[in-house]
Design goal:
By secondary structure, this protein is of the alpha+beta class. It is built from 18 helices and nine strands. The strands form three sheets. Strands 3-4-7-8 form a four-stranded mixed β-sheet. It has a three-stranded antiparallel β-sheet with strand order 5-9-6. It is globular and about 70 Å long.
Protein backbone atom coordinates (compact mmCIF):
# COMPACT_ATOMS: atom_id res chain seq x y z
CA UNK A 1 0.00 0.00 0.00
CA UNK A 2 1.36 3.44 -0.89
CA UNK A 3 2.19 6.07 1.71
CA UNK A 4 -0.51 8.29 0.23
CA UNK A 5 -3.21 5.73 0.98
CA UNK A 6 -2.08 5.52 4.60
CA UNK A 7 -2.76 9.20 5.32
CA UNK A 8 -6.33 8.55 6.37
CA UNK A 9 -8.75 11.03 7.89
CA UNK A 10 -10.92 10.04 10.86
CA UNK A 11 -14.09 11.87 11.84
CA UNK A 12 -14.14 12.44 15.60
CA UNK A 13 -17.20 13.87 17.40
CA UNK A 14 -14.97 15.91 19.73
CA UNK A 15 -12.41 17.49 17.39
CA UNK A 16 -13.83 16.97 13.93
CA UNK A 17 -11.48 15.56 11.31
CA UNK A 18 -8.27 13.95 12.58
CA UNK A 19 -5.51 13.20 10.09
CA UNK A 20 -3.16 10.26 10.62
CA UNK A 21 0.18 12.09 10.32
CA UNK A 22 2.38 9.53 8.57
CA UNK A 23 2.43 5.95 7.19
CA UNK A 24 4.22 4.51 10.24
CA UNK A 25 1.55 5.84 12.65
CA UNK A 26 -1.01 4.28 10.31
CA UNK A 27 0.78 0.93 10.54
CA UNK A 28 0.76 1.12 14.35
CA UNK A 29 -2.96 1.92 14.39
CA UNK A 30 -3.62 -1.01 12.06
CA UNK A 31 -1.70 -3.44 14.26
CA UNK A 32 -3.94 -5.99 16.08
CA UNK A 33 -2.56 -4.80 19.43
CA UNK A 34 -3.96 -1.33 18.81
CA UNK A 35 -7.15 -2.42 17.05
CA UNK A 36 -8.00 -4.33 20.23
CA UNK A 37 -8.61 -0.96 21.92
CA UNK A 38 -11.83 -0.70 19.88
CA UNK A 39 -13.11 -3.45 22.17
CA UNK A 40 -11.96 -1.94 25.48
CA UNK A 41 -14.38 0.54 27.07
CA UNK A 42 -12.97 3.87 28.14
CA UNK A 43 -15.18 4.23 31.21
CA UNK A 44 -15.63 0.62 32.24
CA UNK A 45 -19.17 -0.09 33.43
CA UNK A 46 -20.13 3.59 33.68
CA UNK A 47 -22.66 3.01 30.90
CA UNK A 48 -24.82 1.39 33.59
CA UNK A 49 -25.20 4.93 34.95
CA UNK A 50 -24.65 7.03 31.82
CA UNK A 51 -26.09 5.12 28.82
CA UNK A 52 -24.02 7.08 26.31
CA UNK A 53 -20.68 6.15 27.85
CA UNK A 54 -19.90 3.38 25.38
CA UNK A 55 -16.82 4.99 23.85
CA UNK A 56 -13.56 3.08 23.75
CA UNK A 57 -9.85 3.36 24.46
CA UNK A 58 -9.41 3.54 20.68
CA UNK A 59 -11.38 6.82 20.60
CA UNK A 60 -9.29 8.21 23.43
CA UNK A 61 -5.89 7.21 22.04
CA UNK A 62 -6.61 8.78 18.64
CA UNK A 63 -7.90 11.94 20.32
CA UNK A 64 -4.86 12.23 22.58
CA UNK A 65 -2.58 11.88 19.55
CA UNK A 66 -4.52 14.65 17.80
CA UNK A 67 -4.15 17.17 20.60
CA UNK A 68 -0.47 16.20 20.94
CA UNK A 69 -0.09 17.32 17.32
CA UNK A 70 -1.67 20.63 18.28
CA UNK A 71 0.61 21.02 21.32
CA UNK A 72 3.72 20.38 19.24
CA UNK A 73 2.61 22.96 16.67
CA UNK A 74 2.02 25.59 19.39
CA UNK A 75 5.38 24.95 21.06
CA UNK A 76 7.20 25.19 17.73
CA UNK A 77 5.41 28.46 17.04
CA UNK A 78 6.87 29.69 20.36
CA UNK A 79 10.32 28.64 19.10
CA UNK A 80 10.66 25.49 21.18
CA UNK A 81 12.91 23.22 19.14
CA UNK A 82 11.29 19.85 18.47
CA UNK A 83 12.86 17.69 15.77
CA UNK A 84 10.89 15.51 13.35
CA UNK A 85 12.10 12.39 15.19
CA UNK A 86 11.04 13.83 18.56
CA UNK A 87 7.64 14.77 17.15
CA UNK A 88 7.09 11.27 15.83
CA UNK A 89 8.20 9.75 19.14
CA UNK A 90 5.76 11.96 21.08
CA UNK A 91 2.89 10.96 18.80
CA UNK A 92 3.78 7.27 19.14
CA UNK A 93 4.11 7.44 22.93
CA UNK A 94 0.77 9.16 23.48
CA UNK A 95 -0.95 6.94 20.92
CA UNK A 96 0.19 3.76 22.69
CA UNK A 97 0.07 4.97 26.30
CA UNK A 98 -3.12 3.02 27.15
CA UNK A 99 -2.48 -0.21 25.24
CA UNK A 100 -2.01 -2.15 28.48
CA UNK A 101 -5.58 -1.76 29.69
CA UNK A 102 -7.43 -5.02 30.18
CA UNK A 103 -11.16 -5.64 29.75
CA UNK A 104 -13.29 -2.88 31.25
CA UNK A 105 -10.17 -0.83 31.88
CA UNK A 106 -9.45 -0.12 35.54
CA UNK A 107 -12.09 -2.52 36.82
CA UNK A 108 -9.95 -5.52 35.93
CA UNK A 109 -6.44 -4.05 36.19
CA UNK A 110 -5.27 -6.15 39.12
CA UNK A 111 -7.62 -9.10 38.62
CA UNK A 112 -6.50 -10.74 35.41
CA UNK A 113 -2.79 -10.40 36.26
CA UNK A 114 -0.98 -10.26 39.58
CA UNK A 115 -0.12 -6.71 40.69
CA UNK A 116 0.80 -5.46 37.21
CA UNK A 117 -0.30 -1.95 36.24
CA UNK A 118 -1.64 -1.12 32.79
CA UNK A 119 1.33 1.24 32.31
CA UNK A 120 3.73 -1.69 32.71
CA UNK A 121 1.79 -3.75 30.16
CA UNK A 122 1.68 -0.77 27.78
CA UNK A 123 5.47 -0.67 27.96
CA UNK A 124 5.65 -4.40 27.20
CA UNK A 125 3.50 -3.83 24.11
CA UNK A 126 5.77 -0.97 23.03
CA UNK A 127 8.87 -3.15 23.35
CA UNK A 128 7.24 -5.91 21.32
CA UNK A 129 6.17 -3.45 18.62
CA UNK A 130 9.67 -1.98 18.64
CA UNK A 131 11.00 -5.45 17.89
CA UNK A 132 8.47 -6.01 15.10
CA UNK A 133 9.14 -2.59 13.55
CA UNK A 134 12.96 -2.76 13.66
CA UNK A 135 13.58 -0.29 16.48
CA UNK A 136 11.39 2.56 15.23
CA UNK A 137 9.83 3.02 18.68
CA UNK A 138 13.12 3.34 20.59
CA UNK A 139 12.90 7.09 21.16
CA UNK A 140 9.18 6.89 22.05
CA UNK A 141 10.00 4.27 24.69
CA UNK A 142 12.78 6.44 26.15
CA UNK A 143 10.37 9.36 26.48
CA UNK A 144 7.60 7.16 27.91
CA UNK A 145 9.97 5.79 30.55
CA UNK A 146 11.28 9.25 31.49
CA UNK A 147 14.78 8.43 30.26
CA UNK A 148 14.96 11.20 27.65
CA UNK A 149 16.71 14.35 28.94
CA UNK A 150 14.03 16.78 27.69
CA UNK A 151 11.61 16.53 30.63
CA UNK A 152 8.75 18.44 29.02
CA UNK A 153 8.24 15.61 26.55
CA UNK A 154 7.37 13.14 29.29
CA UNK A 155 5.17 15.84 30.90
CA UNK A 156 3.16 16.13 27.67
CA UNK A 157 2.41 12.40 27.98
CA UNK A 158 2.20 11.91 31.75
CA UNK A 159 1.84 14.75 34.25
CA UNK A 160 -0.89 16.64 36.08
CA UNK A 161 -1.61 18.62 32.90
CA UNK A 162 -0.93 16.17 30.07
CA UNK A 163 -2.55 15.39 26.72
CA UNK A 164 -3.99 12.17 28.16
CA UNK A 165 -6.04 14.01 30.78
CA UNK A 166 -7.01 16.80 28.40
CA UNK A 167 -8.59 14.31 26.04
CA UNK A 168 -10.26 11.94 28.47
CA UNK A 169 -11.92 14.71 30.48
CA UNK A 170 -13.39 16.34 27.40
CA UNK A 171 -14.29 13.00 25.79
CA UNK A 172 -15.76 11.36 28.90
CA UNK A 173 -17.77 14.50 29.61
CA UNK A 174 -19.17 14.46 26.08
CA UNK A 175 -20.17 10.79 26.02
CA UNK A 176 -21.46 10.60 29.59
CA UNK A 177 -23.30 13.91 29.41
CA UNK A 178 -21.64 15.13 32.64
CA UNK A 179 -21.24 18.76 31.55
CA UNK A 180 -19.14 19.69 34.58
CA UNK A 181 -16.23 17.72 33.11
CA UNK A 182 -16.02 19.74 29.90
CA UNK A 183 -12.78 21.71 29.54
CA UNK A 184 -11.35 24.18 27.04
CA UNK A 185 -8.47 22.05 25.76
CA UNK A 186 -7.75 24.51 22.91
CA UNK A 187 -7.14 27.32 25.39
CA UNK A 188 -4.96 25.13 27.59
CA UNK A 189 -2.83 24.02 24.65
CA UNK A 190 -2.48 27.59 23.37
CA UNK A 191 -1.04 28.63 26.73
CA UNK A 192 1.62 25.89 26.91
CA UNK A 193 5.29 26.82 26.86
CA UNK A 194 8.67 25.32 27.77
CA UNK A 195 11.25 26.91 30.07
CA UNK A 196 14.56 25.14 30.73
CA UNK A 197 13.14 21.95 29.17
CA UNK A 198 10.21 21.94 31.64
CA UNK A 199 6.55 22.30 30.63
CA UNK A 200 4.89 25.48 31.92
CA UNK A 201 1.59 27.26 31.47
CA UNK A 202 1.53 30.96 30.66
CA UNK A 203 -0.12 33.04 33.38
CA UNK A 204 -2.86 34.10 30.98
CA UNK A 205 -4.13 30.51 31.13
CA UNK A 206 -4.46 30.36 34.92
CA UNK A 207 -8.27 30.33 34.89
CA UNK A 208 -8.32 27.55 32.31
CA UNK A 209 -6.03 25.51 34.58
CA UNK A 210 -8.37 26.12 37.52
CA UNK A 211 -11.33 25.00 35.40
CA UNK A 212 -9.37 21.94 34.25
CA UNK A 213 -8.60 20.82 37.81
CA UNK A 214 -12.14 21.55 39.03
CA UNK A 215 -13.53 19.56 36.10
CA UNK A 216 -11.28 16.64 36.98
CA UNK A 217 -12.44 16.72 40.60
CA UNK A 218 -16.10 16.80 39.60
CA UNK A 219 -15.72 14.07 36.97
CA UNK A 220 -14.29 11.76 39.61
CA UNK A 221 -17.22 12.28 41.96
CA UNK A 222 -19.91 12.31 39.29
CA UNK A 223 -18.58 9.71 36.85
CA UNK A 224 -15.44 7.71 37.65
CA UNK A 225 -16.29 7.27 41.35
CA UNK A 226 -20.07 7.42 40.98
CA UNK A 227 -21.36 4.94 43.51
CA UNK A 228 -23.21 2.80 40.96
CA UNK A 229 -20.20 2.65 38.63
CA UNK A 230 -18.06 1.83 41.64
CA UNK A 231 -20.18 -1.03 42.93
CA UNK A 232 -20.50 -2.50 39.42
CA UNK A 233 -16.72 -2.51 39.02
CA UNK A 234 -16.28 -4.04 42.47
CA UNK A 235 -18.75 -6.80 41.61
CA UNK A 236 -16.93 -7.46 38.33
CA UNK A 237 -13.66 -7.81 40.22
CA UNK A 238 -15.32 -10.23 42.66
CA UNK A 239 -16.65 -12.28 39.74
CA UNK A 240 -13.21 -12.83 38.28
CA UNK A 241 -11.78 -13.58 41.72
CA UNK A 242 -14.43 -16.28 42.19
CA UNK A 243 -13.89 -17.64 38.68
CA UNK A 244 -10.14 -17.92 39.30
CA UNK A 245 -10.78 -19.60 42.65
CA UNK A 246 -13.12 -22.17 41.09
CA UNK A 247 -10.79 -22.78 38.15
CA UNK A 248 -7.75 -23.33 40.35
CA UNK A 249 -9.78 -25.77 42.46
CA UNK A 250 -10.53 -27.90 39.40
CA UNK A 251 -13.89 -26.52 38.19
CA UNK A 252 -14.05 -26.14 34.42
CA UNK A 253 -15.66 -22.86 33.39
CA UNK A 254 -16.72 -21.94 29.88
CA UNK A 255 -14.68 -19.00 28.61
CA UNK A 256 -12.25 -17.95 25.87
CA UNK A 257 -8.86 -19.64 25.60
CA UNK A 258 -7.04 -16.44 26.52
CA UNK A 259 -9.15 -15.80 29.63
CA UNK A 260 -8.81 -19.44 30.63
CA UNK A 261 -5.02 -19.05 30.65
CA UNK A 262 -5.09 -16.11 33.04
CA UNK A 263 -7.56 -17.84 35.34
CA UNK A 264 -5.43 -20.97 35.50
CA UNK A 265 -2.14 -19.16 36.03
CA UNK A 266 -0.85 -16.48 38.36
CA UNK A 267 0.91 -14.15 35.95
CA UNK A 268 3.13 -11.39 37.30
CA UNK A 269 5.38 -9.00 35.38
CA UNK A 270 8.28 -11.49 35.32
CA UNK A 271 6.15 -14.11 33.56
CA UNK A 272 4.95 -11.77 30.79
CA UNK A 273 6.67 -13.51 27.88
CA UNK A 274 5.81 -12.52 24.27
CA UNK A 275 3.45 -15.52 24.16
CA UNK A 276 1.66 -14.37 27.32
CA UNK A 277 1.50 -10.84 25.92
CA UNK A 278 -0.21 -12.18 22.79
CA UNK A 279 -2.74 -13.98 24.98
CA UNK A 280 -3.39 -10.77 26.92
CA UNK A 281 -3.83 -8.94 23.59
CA UNK A 282 -6.70 -11.28 22.77
CA UNK A 283 -8.65 -10.22 25.87
CA UNK A 284 -11.31 -7.56 25.58
CA UNK A 285 -14.70 -6.59 27.02
CA UNK A 286 -16.50 -9.19 24.91
CA UNK A 287 -14.62 -12.03 26.63
CA UNK A 288 -16.00 -10.86 29.95
CA UNK A 289 -19.57 -10.14 28.83
CA UNK A 290 -19.87 -13.51 27.07
CA UNK A 291 -18.62 -15.22 30.25
CA UNK A 292 -21.12 -13.38 32.43
CA UNK A 293 -23.93 -14.51 30.17
CA UNK A 294 -22.80 -18.11 30.60
CA UNK A 295 -21.81 -17.95 34.25
CA UNK A 296 -25.18 -16.54 35.36
CA UNK A 297 -26.50 -20.09 34.85
CA UNK A 298 -23.62 -21.85 36.63
CA UNK A 299 -24.23 -24.14 39.59
CA UNK A 300 -21.96 -22.06 41.83
CA UNK A 301 -24.21 -19.74 43.81
CA UNK A 302 -21.62 -16.96 44.12
CA UNK A 303 -20.56 -16.91 40.46
CA UNK A 304 -24.10 -17.09 39.12
CA UNK A 305 -25.53 -14.50 41.53
CA UNK A 306 -22.80 -11.94 40.88
CA UNK A 307 -22.94 -12.47 37.11
CA UNK A 308 -26.69 -11.89 37.09
CA UNK A 309 -26.17 -8.62 38.93
CA UNK A 310 -24.11 -7.18 36.06
CA UNK A 311 -26.15 -8.70 33.23
CA UNK A 312 -29.46 -7.47 34.67
CA UNK A 313 -28.12 -4.31 36.35
CA UNK A 314 -29.50 -5.50 39.65
CA UNK A 315 -26.49 -4.56 41.75
CA UNK A 316 -25.52 -4.65 45.38
CA UNK A 317 -26.48 -1.60 47.38
CA UNK A 318 -23.57 0.71 48.16
CA UNK A 319 -23.45 3.30 50.89
CA UNK A 320 -20.82 6.05 50.98
CA UNK A 321 -19.76 7.62 54.27
CA UNK A 322 -17.10 9.88 55.72
CA UNK A 323 -15.90 7.41 58.34
CA UNK A 324 -14.92 3.75 58.38
CA UNK A 325 -18.01 1.53 58.66
CA UNK A 326 -18.60 -0.04 62.05
CA UNK A 327 -16.94 -3.47 62.06
CA UNK A 328 -19.54 -5.01 64.37
CA UNK A 329 -22.30 -4.01 62.02
CA UNK A 330 -20.44 -5.40 59.01
CA UNK A 331 -19.88 -8.67 60.82
CA UNK A 332 -23.53 -8.94 61.75
CA UNK A 333 -24.54 -8.47 58.11
CA UNK A 334 -22.01 -11.09 57.04
CA UNK A 335 -23.39 -13.59 59.54
CA UNK A 336 -26.98 -12.83 58.55
CA UNK A 337 -26.20 -13.35 54.86
CA UNK A 338 -24.24 -16.52 55.64
CA UNK A 339 -27.15 -18.05 57.57
CA UNK A 340 -29.81 -16.97 55.08
CA UNK A 341 -27.91 -18.38 52.07
CA UNK A 342 -26.32 -21.38 53.80
CA UNK A 343 -22.78 -20.32 52.93
CA UNK A 344 -19.55 -19.71 54.85
CA UNK A 345 -18.47 -16.29 56.08
CA UNK A 346 -15.67 -16.39 53.52
CA UNK A 347 -18.23 -16.86 50.76
CA UNK A 348 -20.45 -14.15 52.25
CA UNK A 349 -17.53 -11.73 51.77
CA UNK A 350 -18.33 -11.75 48.07
CA UNK A 351 -21.61 -10.00 48.87
CA UNK A 352 -20.89 -7.93 51.99
CA UNK A 353 -17.64 -5.96 51.94
CA UNK A 354 -16.22 -2.51 52.49
CA UNK A 355 -13.36 -0.30 51.34
CA UNK A 356 -12.42 3.28 50.50
CA UNK A 357 -11.97 5.62 47.55
CA UNK A 358 -9.78 8.71 47.21
CA UNK A 359 -10.28 11.81 45.07
CA UNK A 360 -7.42 14.26 44.69
CA UNK A 361 -7.72 16.61 41.74
CA UNK A 362 -4.28 18.15 42.22
CA UNK A 363 -1.18 17.12 44.17
CA UNK A 364 0.92 20.18 44.90
CA UNK A 365 3.92 18.08 45.95
CA UNK A 366 4.00 15.75 42.92
CA UNK A 367 5.57 17.39 39.86
CA UNK A 368 3.45 20.53 40.27
CA UNK A 369 1.90 22.48 37.41
CA UNK A 370 4.19 25.44 36.79
CA UNK A 371 3.10 28.92 35.75
CA UNK A 372 5.21 31.28 33.66
CA UNK A 373 4.36 34.68 35.13
CA UNK A 374 4.30 37.97 33.25
CA UNK A 375 7.63 38.82 34.92
CA UNK A 376 9.10 35.63 33.34
CA UNK A 377 9.52 33.79 36.65
CA UNK A 378 8.31 30.20 37.01
CA UNK A 379 6.25 29.34 40.09
CA UNK A 380 3.88 26.51 41.15
CA UNK A 381 0.26 27.11 40.17
CA UNK A 382 -0.97 27.26 43.78
CA UNK A 383 1.27 30.31 44.38
CA UNK A 384 -0.60 32.43 41.85
CA UNK A 385 -4.09 30.90 41.83
CA UNK A 386 -6.73 32.13 44.25
CA UNK A 387 -8.64 28.87 43.87
CA UNK A 388 -5.65 26.58 44.34
CA UNK A 389 -3.92 28.47 47.14
CA UNK A 390 -6.05 26.78 49.79
CA UNK A 391 -5.05 23.31 50.94
CA UNK A 392 -8.68 22.21 50.71
CA UNK A 393 -8.53 21.99 46.92
CA UNK A 394 -5.41 19.84 46.72
CA UNK A 395 -6.23 17.76 49.78
CA UNK A 396 -6.99 14.10 49.13
CA UNK A 397 -10.63 13.43 50.03
CA UNK A 398 -11.27 9.89 51.24
CA UNK A 399 -14.72 8.34 51.38
CA UNK A 400 -15.54 4.93 52.77
CA UNK A 401 -18.08 2.52 51.36
CA UNK A 402 -19.92 -0.61 52.32
CA UNK A 403 -21.61 -2.92 49.82
CA UNK A 404 -24.37 -5.38 50.70
CA UNK A 405 -27.45 -7.03 49.16
CA UNK A 406 -30.47 -4.76 48.86
CA UNK A 407 -32.56 -6.84 51.24
CA UNK A 408 -30.00 -6.13 53.98
CA UNK A 409 -30.20 -2.69 55.59
CA UNK A 410 -27.46 -0.61 57.15
CA UNK A 411 -28.51 2.00 59.69
Amino acid sequence: MSAFNKLKILNDPIYGFITIPNPFIYDLIQHPYFQRLRRISQMGLSYLVYPGAHHTRFHHAIGAMHIMQKAIAILRFKEVQISADEENALLIAILLHDMGHGPFSHAMEHSIVEKVSHESISLLFMHQLNYEFDGKLTLAIQIFKGEYPRKFMLQLISSQLDMDRMDYLKRDSFYSGVAEGNINSDRLIQMLHVVDEVLVMEEKGIYSVEKFLMARRLMYWQAYLHKTSLVAELILTKILKRAKELTQNGTKLSCSVSLQFFMENKVDLNLFTPKVLDLFAQLDDFDIISCLKLWQHHDDFILSSLSKMIINRDLLKIKLMNETPNSDEINSKLKAFSIENNCSLEEANYFVFNGSIVNQAYNSTLDPILILTKSKSVVPVNHVSDQLSSEAFSKAVTKFYICFPKQVTIN
